[in-house]
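Predict fold of Extracellular solute-binding protein; 560 aa.
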Amino acid sequence: MPNSQASASTSPPSRRTFLASTAVAAAAVAGGVPLLTGCSTEEGSGKGGTTSGKELKNLLPTYVASKVADPDIPSVNGSSPGYTKAPPAAELVASVKGKPGHGGSYTMFEPLWGTPPPKNNAYYKAVNDALGATVKLQPQDGNTYGEKLGAVLASGDIADIVVIPLWEMGGRIHGAVSAKFADLGPYLSGDKVKKYPNLAAIPTAAWQMSVFGGKLRGLPMPSRPLGSVIPYYREDIFTKEGYHVPKSPAEFLSLAKEITRPKSKVWACDDMWWSAQRFFGCPGEKPYYWIEKNGKLVHKVETENYLEALEWCRKLFARGYVHPDAVAGKANDALTRFTSGQTLLYNDGEAKWYGATFEQAGPNPDFRIQGMDWFGPDGGDPVIYLDPPAQIWSFLNKNLAKDQIEEILALANFIAAPFGTKEQRLIDYGVEGVHHDMKKGVPVKNATGVRDVQDTYRFIASPQASVAYPDFPRMVEDYCGWMRRMGEFARKPLFYGMQIQEPNRYASLYTPFEDLAKDVTRGRKSIKDAQRAISDWRSGGGDRLRDWYAGLLDENGGGA
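Predicted 3D structure, encoded as tokens:
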């Protein structure tokens, strides 16, 4: 599990931000997923060509679980396993014999949320030496990655390894995957993957979403089940002030009133729109934004839940409980407002749990971040929809020769080593004495490690991830406990695990709703304006998109 301080950087609270934050803290969803996937290529593809049933099963790699280290906190309700202790260096297991590479050199185009390390640093040299090959990293600003990615794919000057996140799959990028990148099925499908044991240990659910255009093309970074949005609160301050964690939207509003003291520069929260949607049981984002009601597909924005979430969030803003900088749209400093105590409630992706804890350990040792349990609209049980089982993939240039593809897959097998291995310690912490030091039996990055050992190589391939932060065992217990509790209420959304490309003519239909939500919650537009926008969405293509999804659902026997 990457131990990245880059994950603590702040960014706007858009869906892309939450997904990115989650991605750099990648972990796996284990088992229990239907064998089906869908991907349309162009507008004229009818119901959108799908790969399902036996055909898909033949494409997927055989799953062989890793047995390197038993977790201290086993998985419950689909939660990720947790490790609170670090094995001594002498007890680390080598999951790969010798150097997997044969002297090859490959370029890699990837996103990075944080400051890029210096080129040719000691960490890169150490990893490349252990790989027996050279991976020349080309990190790009993750916040503008889609623009650069589109230009690169259009130019034809494509790196050997290209990383593409799910949220950048809009427009023609999804279709470009089939045209530009290699079919990995001949190397990984079925028992062929057993040549690469660490890749074989990646859950089937993640591989399922790696099928594009009817071929296994992606090397996945598995996701945790519920980490894309977490409502955080300052447990240290709550304890000190005697605040009670709310158990309903109404209690949240009452608590927000109690907390907010503008003269003391303290406000209850930042923009809580993403949490509001989960409080009110809204489904997720594309393509998970559908529910089935009375035999008909209903889009998220058409539900009463969506309008109730908007109205509740509008009250937070109207009553002055939201920090003024958040009201003004200055979202980049949301984490700073939270860690400085200007806000006590804040929502973001899972990466911030460790990132904020690490960041504050020195200057504020009493700091403790905690995840608030989800609740329903009336304070009852919540309705929570699982996140996609994979949200980032690396792809190999189709012009690579067979021996080059096999060498990169061997490198990926090294990089996907699980917790408790020598390979994992190197990838996540660098070299002892150079990038990290052992303190009380725990590897702790020094300043050089914080700068250089970032989430870079893990984008090639990641293991069935765990919550493995032995430097903060209490945080591991907190996070795993939250996942275990919330997993009890988790359900699969429609189209779960399906790799879907909507027809191009519908690609921008949903886009205006993110700005609309900002306008309504801040009082610049009304609920009636939202209702008009929903009506316009239906007549402007929403009803036709509904029919398209209904056809896709029928093709796959009712979906998840």
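Residues 75 and 81 are 5 Å apart (CA to CA).
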